[in-house]
Amino acid sequence: MALGGGLISVYDNDPTLLIMNPSYIGERHHNNLVLNFTDYFSNANYLSALYAYTFPKAGSFAFSVKAVPYGRFMGTDASGLETGYFTAGDYAISLGWGRELSPNFTIGANLNLLLCTYESYTSFGFAVDVAGSYHNPDKRLSLTLLAKNIGSEIKPFVAGQVETPPFDLQLALSQRLQHVPIRYHISLHSLYRWNMNYYGDGNPFLQTDAFTNTIKYPSKAAQFFDNFFRHIIFGLEIEPIQYISIQAAYNHNVHQEMKVVARSSLAGFSYGLSINVKGIRFGFARTHYAPGATPNCFNFALDFGELSKMHQSNKAKKLQRMTD
Fold this sequence. Notes:
about 10% helix; two-stranded antiparallel sheet; Porin; mainly beta; 14-stranded antiparallel β-barrel; 3 helices
C-alpha cells in the first residue's frame, strides 16, 4: 500500500510481499507468519494472514486467508419497513507455490477460492495468479510479470449470469542504487488495455466554451500522456539504516479517478514505514483516495526460524557464562 499497491517486484526476505507475488515464495520465507489489518472505508476492514513453509521435496508454499467484512446494515422492504439487520463481506482462501528455476529466475502461482456473501445472496468462484520473476543480485535489479485473477464464478449471484474476477496484467521493476540507500520502483498495470481515461459529456473537469456552448476537450497529446501515466505507479524507498525502510509512491490513475473539482487533493499519494529487527517486522502505510478517505494499514510478521536461532544462541551464551 505504501508503494502504490503495485509492489510485486521486490526480492526480499519480507514475507508480506508473498501475498502479491507468488513467484518469490522461497526457502528464505520458511516458517514465517504475517498478519495484516487495514482500517478501510466507513465500517469496512481488510484483514489477512499468511504462513509460509518449505517442504524438502514438494517445494515452498504460502497459505493465506483474506477477509473484507463491510459491516452491519439495516434492511428495508420497498415501502421502507425495516426487515432486520444483515451483513456483507468478501472472503478468500489462497494457496501459493513458488519454485526457483535458476539462481536468477523464479516462477509461482496462487490458487484463490473466493466467497462473497451479501445479505441472502452468495457467490462462489476461483481465481489463479501466475507470475515469473528475474533477480540480478549484482545489479540489485528485480523484474516481475504477473497475471492476476484468471478465473470465474462457479456459483453466481444470479443463475445464468456468470461473472469473472477483475483480470489484470502487471509488469514491475525494482532496483536499489549502488552507492546510496535508495530503491526505486516502477510498476505498470492494466497492460491488457490502453484506454483508461474518460472524456465524455459527463466529465466534470471539462470546461464549456462560453460562446459556442460546446465542451472543450484536451488536445490529443494531453489525452495520450494522461492515459500513458495512468498505467504507471512510481515508488521510492529509503533505508537510512539496515532495519528501517521509509516508502512513498504516486499512482496517477488513482489521482485522476479520485480528485475533486473544487479543491486540490492528495489522491494517489501513499507513504509508509517498516521496521525489521531480529525476526520481527512491523509495517504501517497510509494512502489517500479522497478527502476523508485515507485508509491505514498495519502489518506484523514473525520469522520463527530466526527467533528460534536467537533463543538457542542466547541459551548457549548463558551456558558459556555459567561454565566460565
